[in-house]
Amino acid sequence: MGNLRAGLLGIGSMGRHHARVLREVDGVDLVAIADPGGDRFGVAHGVEVLPDVESLIAVGLDLAVVAVPTAFHEDAALKLAAAGVHTMVEKPIADTSGAGERMAAAFARAGLVGAVGHVERYNPALQEMRRRIEAGELGEVYQIATRRQGPFPARIADVGVIKDLGAHDFDLTAWVAQSEYASLSAQTTHRSGRQHEDMVVATGRLKNGVMVNHTINWLSPMKERLCVVTGERGAFVADTSTGDLTFFANGLIQTEWEAVTAFRGVSEGDITRFAFAKREPLRAEHEALRDAVLGVQNDIVTMEQGVMTLLVCEAALASAASGSSVSL
């Protein structure tokens, strides 16, 4: 069997990285690129830049990656599904959960792989943390807290910080805990003069009882990408910007300080920063897509899962608008 023929729709700020990785993945050939805006980052490297998804499909593809603005995801995905092309769309899956549901249904009916580019799931720090939690190293999980903040990215124009950055944290939280959201309460603000929110604080609970908290914004001069999982044996801290994972263990040494011993909590223990292989998340994501298309194994973020994450985003927006907690 020859290499899979891949097409890429959109070579903007994110699409240019997909173009690079698609050329690096074994068993995949990038044979076609489409972007009505042309090749402003110079990533085509001799491949003709086509004008639209229809011309992309006409080349003959096994799989496609959609990296156009969110509002155009549904139209492109439905056309690719109708043409029998396995597809991964960038996150969020669509601009509304209804659109996402139509996309997921179309790929399911056609028996095609439909994936969503929630690349943080492939971050080595989160992969290692999830493995260790599954192995019982943390014991019972109590709380997951994330912080994702930094300067405003000029490339984002069609969604607010919840659907752009928040989608990462909502997805990775449910994935790490292996449980869906049960409820969410959120507050937002608009400080940058745009119609969409640029800051959100959200708190809630997963269906398995784990408490969650998210601090997300585009208004911070420093970039932060942290996920802290606290449990009965300590806390894991994953820094997804560096791929580092640190474990803060509960202390086992008894203290003789009477004022402290009266507190029935935990004390500081050993701190361990783990060493493990760190692969580029985007490359791991594309390899998972390739393997799913080949039927080797299925480790993708499915469109159905993408819809669940978008429903959490919509719940956060609804909670901020109403001032009330929203049940999912």
Automatic annotation (TrEMBL):
Domain GFO/IDH/MocA-like oxidoreductase: 127-236
GO MF terms, alphabetically ordered: nucleotide binding
Keyword NAD assigned: yes
Pfam families from the UniProt entry: GFO_IDH_MocA, GFO_IDH_MocA_C3
Domain Gfo/Idh/MocA-like oxidoreductase N-terminal: 5-118
UniProt keyword terms in alphabetical order: NAD
Gene3D superfamilies assigned to the protein according to its UniProt record, in alphabetical order: Dihydrodipicolinate Reductase, domain 2, NAD(P)-binding Rossmann-like Domain
Superkingdom assignment: Bacteria
Cited PANTHER family: BILIVERDIN REDUCTASE A
Name listed for the protein in its UniProt record: Gfo/Idh/MocA family oxidoreductase
Organism of provenance: Xylanimonas protaetiae
The organism's taxonomic lineage, starting at the top: Bacteria, Bacillati, Actinomycetota, Actinomycetes, Micrococcales
